[in-house]
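Quick check before the chapter quiz. The format below is the same one you will see on the exam, so make sure you can read both the input and the output lines.
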Amino acid sequence: MDLKGKVVVVTGGAQGIGKAICQSLAALGGAVVVSDMNQAGAEATAAEMTAQGQEALALKVNVADESSVKTLVDETLSRFGKIDIFVNNAGITRDTLLMRMKDEDWDAVLSVNLKGVFHCMKAALRSMSKQRSGKIVSISSIVGAIGNAGQANYAASKAAVVGLTKTVAREYAGRGITVNAVAPGFIETAMTASLPEAVQETLKKQIPMARLGQVSDVADAVAFLVSDRANYITGQVIHVNGGMYMSG
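Here is the expected output.
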């Protein structure tokens, strides 16, 4: 799983799962572009990797804005000359029950979580198509497969990412480009750490492995899919959830 000489772009790379993905792919030798709305966070993540002798660049991007994504791709190509791997990780939540959900809550989540992936795929594929190679991985979620009360907008966006992934995989397989998704279950992050202990214990009871996942568990799945070991895998979803969701 050697990524030396590969250029990687990760959206939402400043913290949490995105940061773990950046660190994992950099450790494998990839030159990583850490993109995020949180520019200070992105710069801090890139600085950590640079301090370890890894090549990294931080860029501010709003994936919901097509022109911002174009700038991200243009600056990456200007610096590195190509894009080999693109990881769509940026995402937001605006949780509430459906009957209380406002249009702006729905639109904000779909704009980032779904339209953002659409923008990034389009921009990355222009470059990847010319070089007739590339790997795209998008982060979906277990709730896109099983639903979750209070997350109608988030679940809809993450389910749609799976359909988008399978469609683009079919469209670009002939150009040597693989397109896959990783669907995390409940992972230990700053967000889950803030949940009351009773809620965390209830979550664990729903997971056959009886524990929350680590950000590294998700990063490892992404690392496999973007490596040469996954060259014949496309249009797939890898579920990383400790057995919470099992499909036939």
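If your answer matched, good. The longest helix spans residues 103-131.
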